[in-house]
Amino acid sequence: ITATLLLERAGYRVVLPEKRCCGRPMISKGMLREAKENAIKNVQGLFPYAERGVAIVGLEPSCLLTLRDEYPDLLRTQASKLVARQSLLLEEFLLRERDAGRLSLAFKSSGRKALLHGHCHQKALVGTGPTIELLRWAGYEVAEVDSGCCGMAGSFGFEKEHYDLSLAIANRRLVPAVNAAATEVRVVAPGISCRQQIEHLTGRRAKHPAELLWEQLEKDF
Questions:
Q1: Which residues, 6 or more positions from 168, have their beta carbon under 8 angstroms from its beta carbon?
Q2: Exposed, middle or buried, 18 (CB in 10 Å: 0-12/13-18/19+)?
Q3: What is the rounded distance in angstroms from the CA atom of residue 92 to the CA atom of residue 87?
């Protein structure tokens, strides 16, 4: 909801198309046939927008990057390749529009601090640079945790047999960094499973970058 409000505030019309799961959980479990079925349905729904040059913007790194990185290999169609080319993380889209002179958002002067934990899928394919740049544009002083994986790795940390290992990974660097952060520091993580792990182990609610941008936005209503 916050991302929709943010984009509408910036003058964009947001369309939420019908969709299925991106298929990333299925791919991680080797269920490629089921993942391909979902990919076909999603590309069918998204292709008309991609064909018109509409940006396909995603908030969850694993979902969006599955469209961009996995679908062309799964489907090997021109439609899937076009959908992939039009797919952007929210941070990438906002920076692209800003740099092209199509985006004007006024942020409060801040000096607020943010502690960022990057999503593994994002770090592998995009990097955390766009997230850091966007948060700094909004007035945050950003520190990134050198934490590797949060320990969730999709459904891995939810599985009973992996729970102890998941905790050990999180407690290596991520949990100590969050616990050491002052209460006024905003903890931010683009990935939903990362945010769940942080709250589960530290009691602190990590936020998506869109939420931090909305907090900093100058609003006249």
A1: 151
A2: exposed
A3: 10
Q: List the chain pLDDT tens, one digit each, 221 residues.
A: 899 999 999 999 999 999 999 999 999 889 999 999 999 999 999 999 999 999 999 999 999 999 999 999 999 999 999 999 999 999 999 999 999 999 888 898 778 999 999 999 899 999 999 999 999 999 999 999 988 898 888 778 888 888 999 989 999 999 999 999 999 999 999 999 999 999 999 999 999 999 999 999 977 65
Alpha-carbon distance of 12 to 33, in angstroms, equals 36
Phi first, then psi, for residue 79 (nearest 5°) are -65, -45
Query: DSSP E strands: which ranges in the chain?
Result: 56-58, 87-89, 113-116, 141-144, 186-188
Structure tokens, 186 = 């905003």
Whether the CB-CB separation of 159 and 172 falls below 8 Å is answered with: no
Q: Please count the CA atoms within 13 angstroms of the CA of 220 that sit on its side-chain side.
A: 2
> How far is 93 from 71, CA to CA, in rounded Å?
20
Its pTM stands at: 0.92
Other Cβ atoms closer than 10 A to 20: 12
**Which residue type sits at 159?**
E
